[in-house]
Amino acid sequence: MARAIELAIENVRAGCGGPFGAVIVKDDRILATGTNQVTSTNDPTAHAEVVAIRAACAALGTFQLDGCDIYTTCEPCPMCFGAIYWARPRGVYYGATAADAAAAGFDDAFIYEQLVMPPQKREIPFTPLMRDQALACFQAWAAKPDRINY
Amino acid sequence: MARAIELAIENVRAGCGGPFGAVIVKDDRILATGTNQVTSTNDPTAHAEVVAIRAACAALGTFQLDGCDIYTTCEPCPMCFGAIYWARPRGVYYGATAADAAAAGFDDAFIYEQLVMPPQKREIPFTPLMRDQALACFQAWAAKPDRINY
Predict the structure, then answer these.
(1) CA separation (Å) from B44 to A7, A17, A72?
(2) Which ipTM value was assigned to this complex?
(3) Could you tell me where the beta strands, DSSP code E, fall in chain B?
(4) Rounded to a whole number, what is the distance in Å from the CA of A99 to chain B's nearest CA?
């Protein structure tokens, strides 16, 4: 966690993005690190945890973080929370809270609120469309004998 | 949406990843597309919406999708939901539902359940650590006069 904090502060000073850092540890060694690179790479998904998860998976050559722990300077936003669940590490350690992030001007808490609202009442409207046709995607998946589950 | 469905089905047949596609439209034109590439790129964050958002932002040279609409073959998982909120498009149209995705074997609904649980009761335990020290990251951010908000 001390290293993640150090990386986050360096990231701000270098002008690479927001004040967030993450470190992924496996077998007591740092496997990968990440910092927020949203504004320097024009990638709204380049949060510290996402950057670190991608780097760790690249290092391991797999899309799963079995036996890994993630240390992040702030409680993950919903995007990073989802990324963590898809990567399936062993555990997560976080420094500041989502409320701290909100107080510092970040949308984390707002996005958590929006998530539990009915789709059409959200600030960004979510509209259902062509569900019957879209189910063909899942039918194609079920019909593929050599599919790789994830 | 028809194009997103077509891309998702092609993606399954080509063995590139899961049965999901997304198309981002601006000014009545397709700006970017994405399909799930988790297993072919060893990137658990490479969901269709995330891939499409990254491509659209790269095409626009910005980290915001002002005036864009996202068409996705399935209701976004929490990761993609968060990515959408950070990218701030105008609207989202989705085909299948999160329940449809769960029925097809994907974790979307499970992750939505986990999000609203207390951090230490989750299947992946979330443990607070060194909050006081971590707040220094936000102090560095507040002290940076030329910071770029996102």
Answers:
(1) 23, 22, 18
(2) 0.96
(3) 21-26, 29-35, 68-74, 91-96, 126-128
(4) 11
